[in-house]
């Protein structure tokens, strides 16, 4: 196998940040490669993964807290209010309600 870019070489390029649901790669366009010894090579080509598929693996922030944080907080508040109302118990015999403040 032939090593095109060694560890420490510098690749210059751009990436497309429009990522759809379920995608884990971004499209990259590499413009130039500069080796540690200062040799520059013009690439002007698309990036590809280890198996040759277009795109480069990337960590993508899905913003789950921004998407679901409000619903989780609302659910928590509803559960807290339900727990508070469960401390109010119907007393046996008198037909009234008692509040347990402990």
Would you give an account of this structure?
- Keywords: Membrane, Transmembrane, Transmembrane helix.
- This is VirB10.
- It is a single-pass membrane protein.
- InterPro entries: T4SS_VirB10/TraB/TrbI, T4SS_VirB10/TrbI.
- Its main location: membrane.
- The structure is a single chain.
- This protein has 102 residues and is an alpha+beta fold.
- The chain has a domain at 10-57.
- The protein is built from one helix and six strands.
- The chain has one helix spanning 64-86, and strands at 10-16, 25-34, 40-46, 56-57, 88-90, 97-99.
- Strands 1, 2, 3 and 4 form a four-stranded antiparallel β-sheet that branches.
- It is rod-shaped, with a radius of gyration of 29 Å.
- It starts with 9 loop residues before the first strand and ends with a strand.
- The model has no long low-confidence stretch (mean pLDDT 81).
Shape assignment = rod-shaped
- Number of helix segments? 1
Structural class: alpha+beta
Q: Bin the helical content.
A: 10-25%
Average predicted local confidence, pLDDT: 81
pLDDT below 50 for ≥5 consecutive residues: which ranges? none
- From the structure provided, what is the oligomeric state, counting identical versus distinct chains? single chain
Round the Cα radius of gyration to an integer and report it. Answer: 29 Å
Number of strands: 6
Give the topology string: H per helix, E per strand: EEEEHEE
């Amino acid at each position: 196998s032939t090593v095109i870019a060694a560890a420490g070489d510098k690749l210059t390029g751009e990436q497309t940040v429009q990522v759809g649901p379920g995608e884990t790669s971004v499209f990259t366009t590499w413009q130039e490669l500069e080796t540690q010894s200062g040799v520059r090579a013009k690439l002007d080509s698309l990036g590809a993964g280890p198996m040759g598929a277009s795109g480069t693996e990337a960590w993508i922030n899905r913003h789950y807290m921004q998407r679901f944080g409000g619903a989780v907080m609302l659910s928590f508040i509803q559960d807290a209010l339900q727990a508070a109302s469960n401390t109010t118990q119907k007393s046996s015999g008198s037909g009234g309600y008692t509040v347990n403040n402990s």
